[in-house]
Amino acid sequence: MSNKLAIIVPAYNEEKVLNHSVGVLEDILLKLQRQNKIDDQSYLLIIDDGSTDQTWAIVQKLSKNSLVNVKGIRFSRNFGHQNAIWAGLMQAKEDADLTITIDADLQDDSKMIPKMVDQYLAGNQIVYGVRNNRDSDSFFKRESANMFYKLMNLLGVKIIPNHADFRLMTVKAVNLLSQYHERQLFIRGLIPQLGLSTSKVDYKRQKRIAGESKYTIQKMLDLAWNGITLFSTSLLKVPTILGGEFLLLGTVLLLEHAVWKHSISMNLISLWIIGGAILLSLGIIAEYVGKTFNEIKHRPRYLVAERTDNNE
Question: Residue 133 pairs with which residues in a beta bridge?
């Protein structure tokens, strides 16, 4: 095995940080090559997720002028972060022995990449980057993340706490991952299902050097909701539980009225509560039906509009 490494970098409107980030990753690749830990043909693969700024122009320039091989793929439009990662992995598995995914802003600490490679050389198929400090995140983001991991654990979904999409995977792991065909992706939920040898490296999340995070609160909540509904059917039990509780409540109120002749003064409020419970139940079921509908259409996860010349 040649230990050819592909570092996959999803990027969306990252013109302010891309040159700096590629320079940092370039230095890491060159150092690992000098240490004979990875192959000299190792490369960076940047996935432009339909950027509307100068991101693609920068990628094209870097592909011609960088000290290491820089390849690029440009989507025809914005298909989302998870699809960009997937595209990079599926491309890299054709010629790389191992892959590392890291966001273009390098808030996931790129200094951990050599440690990940060392863990791979020690025999691990997957190496997770795990945040041990989220001081750079807002209070809302920290607390919502903690609630998400607790909820996933409660629902019985196996997921690595405080791990996003900063990880090393061997080509064996990526080939196994490629056998999952769902279109609505939550990659960090799929990886633990592969059943391969794993380890982790801890790191402190870094601050952005420029620009703004493209992961808005709405996108973060959408990803969390996908993680919950794509990997657990536990919420489908909610209508049954609510139905049983309201049936019991109705029976108690009926007996109270029949035996003790108590008047029920909360009729309207009770109707609101029951109506709300019904709508909640229908909404949960509709969410799963909607995801099934989207899956059976088998639409492509992404469309490639352009590649750099050295990506053929």
Answer: 204
CB 132, CB 202: distance < 8 Å: yes
The contacts of residue 190 (CB under 8 Å, 6+ apart) are 177, 180
91-96 contact pairs (CB < 8 A, 24+): 91/45, 91/311, 92/6, 92/8, 92/45, 92/174, 93/171, 93/174, 93/175, 93/178, 95/4, 95/6, 96/4, 96/5, 96/6, 96/42, 96/43, 96/171
Q: Exposed (0-12), middle (13-18) or buried (19+): which is 158, by Cβ within 10 Å?
A: exposed
Alpha helices in 66-207 (DSSP H): 81-92, 113-121, 139-154, 171-177, 187-190
- In terms of DSSP bridges, do strands 304-307 and 69-75 run parallel, antiparallel, or are they unpaired? antiparallel
Two structure tokens written together for 132: 């041990």
Span 63-110, pLDDT tens digits: 998 889 999 999 999 999 999 999 999 999 999 999 999 999 999 999
According to DSSP, residue 140 is labeled: H
Rounded to 5 degrees, φ, ψ at 42 are -60, 155
Spell out the residues 6+ positions from residue 118 whose beta carbon is closer than 8 angstroms to its own: 37
Rounded (10°) CA dihedral 200, 206, 208, 209: -120
pTM, two decimal places:
0.75
As a whole number of angstroms, the distance between CA 121 and CA 215 comes to 33
Contacts of 117 (CB under 8 A, 6+ apart): 5, 32, 37, 38, 98, 168
Asked whether the beta carbons of 274 and 244 are under 8 A apart, the reply is no
Instruction: Give the pLDDT confidence of 265-312 residue by residue, as tens digits.
Output: 556 456 656 766 776 777 777 777 777 766 776 778 888 889 997 665
Measured distance CA(69)–CA(91) in Å, rounded: 15
The conformation of residue 216, written as its DSSP 8-state character, comes to -
Residue in 105, 106, 91 with CA at minimum distance from that of residue 45: 91
